[in-house]
Amino acid sequence: MLGLNRNDTLLLIFVAIITLAAPILMNPFPTESSLAQFNAGYPDLMQRFVIFGIFAIGYNILFGLTGYLSFGHAAFLGAGSYACVWMFKLFGYNVLPGIVLSVIVAGIFSVAIGYISLRRSGIYFSILTLAFAQMSFALAYSVLGQDMWGLKGGLTNGETGLQVYSNDPQIFHSEAAPNLPHLFGVPMRETWIWEYGAWQFQFNAGFYLCAIIMLVVFYLSMRIFRSPFGLMLRAVKTNQNRLNYTGVNTKPYTLAAFVISGMYAGLAGGLLSAMDPLAGAERMQWTASGEVVLMTILGGAGTLIGPVLGAGMIKYFENIFSKINKGILEGWFSFLPESVADPIVSVLYLFTGSGWHLTLGLVFMLVVIFLPGGLVGGLIGAGRRLFRRGGGKAAKNTQPTPTSQAAE
Amino acid sequence: MDLDAVLLQILNGLDKGSAYALIALGLTLIFGTLGVVNFAHGALFMVGAFCAVTLQKVLTLSTITIDETKTDFLGNPLKVKTPYVENWFGEATGATIIDWAVPLSILLAIPVMLIIGIVMERGLIKHFYKRPHADQILVTFGLAIVIGEIVKASFGATEQPVPAPQSLSRVTDVGAMLGLEGINVSYPSWRLVNMAFAAVVIIAIFSFLRFTTFGMVVRAGMADRETVGLLGINIDRRFTIMFAIAALVAGLAGVMYVPIKPPSYELGMQFLVISFVVVVVGGMGSLPGAVAAGFLLGLLEAFASTELAKGILPGIDQIIIYVVAIIILLTRPRGLMGRKGVMEE
After folding, report:
1. Contacting residues of B for A126, CB less than 8 Å apart
2. DSSP secondary structure letters along A201-243
3. Which one of B135, B144, B277 has the shortest CB-CB distance to A127?
4. Domains identified in chain B and CATH numbers
5. On the CB side of A52, how many CA atoms lie within 13 Å of its CA?
6. Which residue does chain A place closest to B317, by CA atoms?
7. Domain segments of chain A: what residues?
8. What is the DSSP secondary-structure string of A232-301?
9. Do A368 and B314 touch (CB under 8 A)?
10. Distance (Å, whole) CA A371 – CA B242
11. Residue (of B315, B214, B202) closest to B252 by Cα position
12. Is B167 in contact with A396 (CB distance < 8 Å)?
């Protein structure tokens, strides 16, 4: 279906079902129960899941396929955010032109930065992208945020962040349209609440817009992974020298991958602005680039579903795990005598609440050390090993070849 | 710009550059010997800085006595805090010890940083020699997050100021110090001390590598590790020690930088980007290159932040380092003094 083989079609359908049913699946606990704080099914967080999923899917096309480790993709996310808010300021609150422009702007940026950075590889490439991203951040934060060309607050409005003011032109804005981001009249904040027994599910327009876009770009990335172009990118990762010796010019391929991933980042940035029309320079900081690296590696670079999973995990950690404070921990261990519970709580507290970054860092290190394929890669490896072991006994009698052993 | 202003900016540049040069020197030592790209190096710098914070906190641990004769502003009997060191060594000596907390913490930082370096190399980095550079970057990036969070959990997220010793926290008349007539520049004494310290450390590292047998073996190992190993020399053990020394250099730079910039857990990440840019500009694996690039970029940054430069190109001070790095990487791919064949696979 859609030019995919059977397994990929199943995967796509699976992802589609999970994503579209997310408002229900993410809310497994009744609203009044004590576990309700672990529900992730509120619009704001679900939007973040899919938007950063898009970001990570795009990053994976560059890093997962070509092995080029960019530390500067947040620059494209930021550029996309700014572009989208500018569209709101100039033409009104319809999100479609904003999202389209953010993809285009990020594409132009990534052609320029990619063309220069891709002249080097390895660590030099990482440092070049890092330098470009930090430069964009510094420019957006200070220089472009000063009054210029008669624009108050310049292009980026500096520290305050770019936002829409009531005296902005918004030339296509009509009285009938809502005064906040909308898609042809449907506001992004519109939420339909469905009460079912003790549960409450929220279906948000903005989330569904992002989710559908994510499914489309996920499908695109599947096609890229399975295409001859994707194969060429994998060849670049495996051995670029040999490709060069055979007379292939790899630059167009890597540049295309870089630009595609930059446009994905721009799309994510545009969607962020579409959900909340405020763009700040901190989205461009290199730690934001580091975050998408974490997401992709954690889930599994080079796998299709891994980056989405990684993005979901990190955003879940950031928003839910970080809410586990001392009181909640004490509640959990209240069945123990105080002398036992206190040390447990104080140790666990280091890893939860505001210390969630510590857990994230440790998990990330463990994944890099022990599971180079990320969580998904590890799962696939484990599954394959199980299957091999089951079928291996039968196979051993028929053809005990050394190659099958090597494969294990 | 008159001569005074130029001299002032040179001093500013050397001040910044000395921190850059020390961090980049350590990074290059690690890269040149072990071939590992260490993204946790900024974190080591921060750990050094927090050695000073810890020592100051330990020294100021106090007993609280109640002075019945005086009252505080609420009318309660006044609580007088006396640090233990003042009880033990007498008031004047104790106060001096507390005052000199930052220089004293060098003594604390030396064993701490060496141990951290050895543990880090044996426990983690060792397993990554054969893995791709991307993996090394990622695992040390994770380690940097972990170290930062541990520091945050123990010291809080705020900046922890520790002052320089009082006698060094004033300004020095640089013109008089250099014996130059007609130059009227005053500069904070501690920053001058910091520069001198950086110079001493850099000279010490270079002499260590140049004039000792140990250093000779290490240099030989940097040039051709395999042959040195075949000659029956345990090069791994020496490289472990070099890693510890690199960690020590970063830590000492961190200690000395405390009075200039109060450290917080984010300090490591702030310096990391800059120091990598410095290393790459200097040339991956070249020690003189790292030092030269450190001072060069420090000076460029200082001159770019003058009003004159900002008047020509607004915001140049924010981006000059990155612009220079990009230009150098594209025109001289090996950096200023990079060796052939390093990181060029």
Report:
1. 137
2. EEEEHHHHHHHHHHHHHHHHHHHHHHSHHHHHHHHHHH-HHHH
3. B277
4. 3-58+105-331 (1.10.3470)
5. 26
6. A138
7. 6-30+39-319
8. HHHHHHH-HHHHHHTT---HHHHHHHHHHHHHHHHHHHHHHHHHS-EE-GGGGSHHHHHHHHHHHHHH-T
9. no
10. 29
11. B202
12. no
Q: What are phi and psi of A183, to 5 degrees?
A: -115, 105
Q: Quick check: helix, strand or coil at residue A165?
A: coil
Which run of H or E residues covers position B144?
Answer: helix B133-155
A248 at the B interface (CB within 8 A)? no
What are B45's two structure tokens?
A: 């710098």
Supply A330's token pair. 């004490």
Phi/psi at A392 (5° precision): -65, -35
Distance between CA atoms of B282 and B296, rounded to whole angstroms?
9
Average pLDDT score, chain B? 83
Report how far residue B228's alpha carbon sits from residue B266's, in angstroms, rounded to the nearest whole number: 40
Residues of A in contact with B273 (CB under 8 A): 130-131, 134, 286
- For residue B143, the distance in angstroms to the closest alpha carbon of chain A comes to 7
Q: pLDDT tens across A326-382, in order?
A: 777 777 777 777 777 777 777 777 777 777 888 888 888 888 888 878 888 888 888
User: Which H or E run contains B101?
Assistant: helix B101-123
- Contact status, residue B18 vs residue B194, Cβ threshold 8 Å: yes
What is the SS3 string spanning A365-379?
HHHHHHCCCHHHHHH
CATH 1.10.3470 matches A6-30+39-319 = yes
Is residue A387 classed exposed, middle or buried when 0-12, 13-18 and 19+ CB atoms within 10 A define those classes?
exposed
The predicted-structure confidence for A303-320, as pLDDT tens digits, reads as follows 888 888 888 888 888 887
> Is ipTM > 0.90 here?
no
At a CB cut-off of 8 Å and minimum separation 6, what does A271 contact? Answer: A47, A51, A54, A84, A99, A209, A210, A213
Alpha-carbon gap, residue B251 to A198, rounded angstroms: 56
In whole angstroms, give the CA distance from residue A370 to residue B251. Answer: 29
Which of A124, A143, A354 is nearest residue B280 as measured by Cβ atoms?
A: A124
Out of B37, B150, B323, the one facing A358 most closely (by C-beta) is B150
Chain-wide mean pLDDT for chain A? 81
